[in-house]
Amino acid sequence: MSTLFRPPIVTIMGHVDHGKTTLLDKIRGSSVAAREAGGITQHISAYQVDVTTKSGKSGKITFIDTPGHAAFNQMRSRGAQITDIVVLVISATDGVMAQTKESIKEIKKTNAPVIIAMTKVDMEQSSPEKVKGQLVELGLTPEEYGGQVALFPVSGKTGQGIDALLESIFLHAEIMELKDESNSQLEAVVIESLLDKSRGPIATLIVKKGQIKLGDTIFAQNIPGKVKAMSIPVATPSSPVEILGFEQVPLVGTPVSNVKTDSTSTVDPTRLSQTKTDGSPRLPIVVKADVQGTLEALLSSLTDDVFLLASGVGAVTDNDVNMAASAKAQIFAYNVAIPRFIKNLADNEKVPIFESKIIYEILDDIQKQVLIMLDPTIEETNVGEAKIIAEFKIDKVRIAGIEVTKGLLTKGDNIHLKRDDIIIKDTKIEGIRQAKDAVDVAKAGHQFGITFRPYVDFKINDVIIAYKVEK
């Protein structure tokens, strides 16, 4: 693209597990997806790639990869506010799902051009026409159906359709004439932030106008910073850049400029009382997370049954434990370090600590503790366990071949799907077969075939845990 124009900022949106990260991996030639706990992109990440299409068109594109889980609505919304073009990723096997609809709502608020990337088209159970029909119903009519939305069948594994998708991004950018305003006053947005215990506050920004150079004084609203280090030599419009030098950790979504501005509090006053207006109790909790964006997403997902005693970015500390002990609170820690002496202190003070690298596990743990608070006789009981040892298909339906190792699995049971000691999905047992016969119960020591509803993308060696919520 011409130096008169800045690279397009493209936000990738869509439902969890629909292939957003795999698609981006193919474009940038890396393999991040395999390293993400639970197969879910936990943070917004941004990067700029040099792209050359088969037609010879070349240039830079900045991608913002937004999380797909419902807890990140707020972060997705902020991602859409700074984007030029949205690529909405929809699986050809699963179609439009809950987060797809939420993403479409956010897209419509911004009026940003949208391109559909229909993934997993190389899979046998794909239903592209069904997906197109769903899009028509939601007001995103594909061009081949007489609408104005470009749709590209793609595969992150084979690379099918990716060149055409990139060509479309370049075409949209040319039509939009995204001017390079490097000489304007700085306008940037914080898209991620964290507290590094050795380096201090770190923020990832996307520059919209102006430039950022080493030594510059900048402000994330009223938080001052002097750029002590940055990930690239100079950050120009559309550049993602990691900055070291803010005096405090700025909130995700905070505008950054050369001028200090006032900020408004984001504290929810309904969280400041340990009882609700009707006098019923709230569960007192302390929440810690690895970065500011995830912390905000967690806090925005809390229900009215929760009393937020404290929250913060970084490792669980002795202050957190002592505060929780004094208020008889519980600590919920997302993807942060919990040193052995902190665990010992928590044990001595009888402070439960729940930790996970998957955000919906933390939210589930909070909800379970709320239920126990409201009715202490409610608890989750495991009733059976099995290992997936094979997979096969009958009439295009994917069947998990299992060996039951403990207890019983019953048709209709709630189950956790566990991979590498991490619960990655919750679903139910739809049906059980033993040889050619349909049965209602699978007993320990025997092998069966089972199906799930909702569908889960299981793998051999996954573990199935059947459970009941009981009093």
Label this structure with key terms:
4 domains; Rossmann fold; six-stranded antiparallel barrel; 38% strand; alpha+beta; Elongation Factor Tu (Ef-tu), domain 3; six-stranded mixed beta sheet; 471 residues
Number of domains: 4
Q: Specify the structural class.
A: alpha+beta
The CATH class designation of the largest domain is: Alpha Beta
Strand content: 35-45%
The percent range for helix content is 10-25%
- Helix count from the secondary structure assignment: 9
Characterize the largest beta sheet: strand count, sense, and whether it forms a barrel: 6 strands, mixed
CATH superfamily of the largest domain: P-loop containing nucleotide triphosphate hydrolases
CATH topology of the largest domain: Rossmann fold
Number of strands: 26
Distance between the termini: 64 Å
In the sheet with the most strands, the strands line up as 2-3-1-4-5-6
Description:
The chain is an alpha+beta fold and 471 residues long. The protein is 21% helix and 38% strand. It folds into four domains: 9-176, Rossmann fold, CATH 3.40.50; 187-257, Beta Barrel (Elongation Factor Tu (Ef-tu), domain 3); 269-374, Translation initiation factor IF- 2, domain 3 (Rossmann fold, 3-Layer(aba) Sandwich), CATH 3.40.50.10050; 379-470, Translation factors (Elongation Factor Tu (Ef-tu), domain 3, Beta Barrel). The strands form five sheets. A six-stranded mixed sheet has the order 2-3-1-4-5-6, sandwiched between helices. It has a six-stranded antiparallel beta barrel with strand order 7-8-13-11-10-14. α8 (340-348) links the parallel β17 and β18. The longest helix is centred in the last third of the chain and has 16 residues, at 359-374. It is flat, with a radius of gyration of 24 Å.
